[in-house]
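Appendix C. Worked example: Phosphate transport system permease protein PstA (TC 3.A.1.7.1)
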Amino acid sequence: MSRFPQQYRDTLNCYTRNWYTRNWYTPGKILVVVLALPALLIPTMVLCYIFWQAAPVLNWGFLSGTADGVGFGVTEGIFSQLVGSLLLATMACLIATPFALGTALYYRTFATPWQQRLLSAMFNMLQGIPPIVFGLCGLVVLVNLFAWGVSLLSGAVVLAVVVLPLLVLNTLVTLERIPNEYSEAGSALGLTKGAIILRLWLPRSWLPLLTGLLLAMARALSETAPIMFTATVFSGVVWPDSIFSPVTTLQTHIFYLAQEGNDPLLVSIAWGSAAVLVLLVASFSLLARLLQKSGGN
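Step 2, the predicted output written as structure tokens:
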């Protein structure tokens, strides 16, 4: 029996190898799709359910605070809660940003290796502490010991501590991306450390820093436990008279209304408030993403 010609055998082997290369990982692709689908479908279904439940109350009057039959007193919308949430998040980021920038600059320019390790460990530890612990500390120290009371300032300081690790790490990453040639050129021109930071580093890093600030705003808006102890009340306050006055926020508004499960109106308002809060957090996150992409380009 004659042997199969070598050229045909080579052609057949080549085709077999190519088919195997194209198809051997098909089971792996199926497994990846099966594992990825729940990660995509579950959040999508949750968001759809939130907005479906919120649809009956979502209107301009609900957002502006003039809708009839809306609110804890069944007379007003969520405008004061929306403003309270934004005030807390904005104040927290304004308080945390100088400390984050100063810490990152010290880490990059002056810290010794053991100080860098200490700072890294400290901020990694801060990231892992549950926010409710910060709220409890704020209640003991700020509300009671400093006698600030349940107030806008107390909540903003606690939220500033919560978002501080995020801002520090974002600033560190931003500064590390600045080429060393800038510092070397500045030193060669006789610039001081401060001049290098102000004239070379900050002009090149303001966009990533703004991106981190927006992400910190989104993080602050998503926190509930810290401000329940330190900043918010549920009713009786529309606008804070000063930084030492309490505020109402969307987070605690949702929490309290959700406990009124026997009242369909209040439950619908809770869903509407949740939808607005989701949109608010998503807006800051999306804007941060767009800034990041524009900075990358």
